[in-house]
UniProtKB/TrEMBL annotation:
Residues 709-802 form the FDX-ACB domain. Mg(2+) binds at residues 458, 464, 467-468. Pfam families: B3_4 (PF03483), B5 (PF03484), FDX-ACB (PF03147), tRNA_bind (PF01588), tRNA_synthFbeta (PF17759). It comes from the Bacteria. This is Phenylalanine--tRNA ligase beta subunit.
Amino acid sequence: MKFSENWLRHHVPTQASRDELAATLTAIGLEVEEVTALGDSLDGVVVARIVSAQRHPEADRLQVCEVDTGNGMVQIVCGAPNARTGLVAPLAMVGAQLPGGIAIKAAKLRGVESFGMLCSAKELGVDPDASGLLELPADAPVGTPLATYLGLPDASIEIKLTPNRADCFSVRGIAFDVAAALGGNVIPLNAEPVPAQSDAAMKVVLDAGARVPRFAGRVIDNVDATVATPVWMAERLRRSGLRPISFLVDVTQYVMLELGQPMHAFDKDKLEGEVVVRPARAGESLALLDGRTVELSDDFLVVSDSHGGKGARAVALGGIMGGSETRVTDTTRNVFLEAAHWIPEAIIGRSRKLGMHTDAGHRFERGVDPQLPTIAVEYATRLILDIAGGVAGPLLDVTLPEHLHSPEPILLRRARLARVLGLTVADDEVVRIFTALGMAVVPQADGWQVTAPSRRFDIEREEDLIEEVARIHGYENIPTSTPSGALTLAVEPEGRLNELAVREQLAARGYYEAVNLAFIGNDVLQRWGMTADLVPLANPLSADLAVMRPSLLPGLIVALSHNRARQQERVRLFELGRTFRISAEAAARKDAPTETPTLSIVACGSAHAEQWGEPSRTLDFHDLKGDLDALIAWGGEPDRWAVHADGLPGWLHPGRSARVTRDGLTVGYLGALHPQLAKALDLGADVHVLELELDAVLARRLPRAQAVPRFPSVRRDIAVDVPEAVSWSEIEQVVRKAVGGQLKELRLFDRYSGKGVELGRKSLAMGLILQDASRTLTDDDADRNIREAVAALEMACKAKLRG
């Protein structure tokens, strides 16, 4: 938002200097990006008229001008291309000191004396235009100091606004903040209703529901559209970054900058029948003021007339830009002024969809005061009647009251304000701040009931009011205090591991933690065969990030592949994060997706880092199984875990993978990637993965103190011949169940297949560590346990005891 300093001071008188004003704006959250001083040194520069202009006798590009200064005639040699008889322009008299240190002296140019200098806007420091002399209106009073005539010195101030401060897209909106911060008051706006002088009116129909709940307008007949825009208005527009175009257009721009309400002026004679505000029809086209013709979809809104039928012809793109067919021109005699309230949801994104940006759209996207349309029409009407004449019809105000935003009172508690800010703000100061900001304040026993003005869409709750007090009272006035240092120690539940412990355990085993985005592309998931129960994003950042991840593994494998492509052959990565799934039934009910905390591991390359102590070998299934066993052991409940060779997903190798269960429920998978998937992902056969539900890993047995065993343990070793398909976890569960509490530990120390063992079978040798807490076990006790274990294995696993 760019505006004139003098224009702001017109609404909120203050003795603060320019630097103080800029510092105050930044301090209250309206960050000043640039301050451009205009006309700071124009003593000795007056309004002058060129009475005659003759070609210089010695230079084709110079002219010798006789100039009326209002206090006599002077001769000026000028090289400006637009210097001509009758032109009114600024004249720097001899002795003047222009911005930039230019001193004006009498001089001879090619033998002709010159007593001063006719100036361009750039030489005066009021505009960057240096193409010629600054042309002033023909009725400008000759002899008047230029600074007085143009309202100088001044400054163009540009501020950067946060999206929530849409009310400050106007000079008056900024004025309320300045008044509150500097202890002043905003001068009331003179927008008295203009009495109707005729019955001329347009019928307006609102056919867009809540998206356009208000439309104000007025017909003004017999307007002189050729009248020049007054200097004071044109200068305020220029200093706000807008070029004057024509009076009727400039009035609407001026009101938008001053009040914040975008407006549009139609040539009434080019409108037919009633005006209808409606959604655009798919494929409907509209020629805009900028010369483009756009094709619209049904999510746009348009203002239409009855040319070709009721609401048939679109004449303006709602909240963004007017149409060229009904624009005002120098031949316009009758005008229809329009000011509507378009809610942000109806405008957001529409300009970008057409590849354009307008001041009106920018404001409506962030929210415009719904009470402004009628005020803006009255204010613009008065300006037009005073400057261009005309006959005003009655004010038209069509509303849908049930859809108009109405601020609700908010209770600000005194104790809450003091607690959040860390200081006590006097009651009188709180009331002054809110009153200066245009809010209604009613004192309460425990605080204040505050109602924000309708322009303040950002005031919704008590915290917003506290923020207003803080920024106006001054953040620098809030005391800085050092924290006391008293820390509350969180009690970690003993029945659950800390995630940090898992991270440390994996880091100790040589893994690095990775953090990936929670989004992934559909094409990646299709390669993995993970196409069921997906959670698509309604507005993805890109096609590669269109789905919430159902697994951590695809993202980890991308990271692994990235490392391999950079000559890292041995890669160990893990990630803790959430995965997301939703069934079709849940999606139909619009339920929230299921979020599952998950732990995933990927590894490839050699089993151990390169060293001299042992030969290198490639990572295999059992290495990752060892990492799983270490995590299981950390929780202290290995007897509740098991691995199975059945029920594998399609992305795992069918012969080198396993399904992981806890208490009989599947909690994850382990193994090598399926060869077809590894090939599709351009990976080797040595990539192994592990994915587990994190809650199963974190659950652990409550630690209990136990006495040191008083009695010795007994070890018995047996070797059994079992079918190849029988897993060690099945054997372990059978033995533990058969022997019971006297089995303290079961160790597998050998596996053999080959000569002496039938094809399709294997020999497993295991050690049983037996111990009793109440007595020393005898040989008979140990032999009995072994017999029971062997019998159970023969029954459940078709095992044979080997000699």
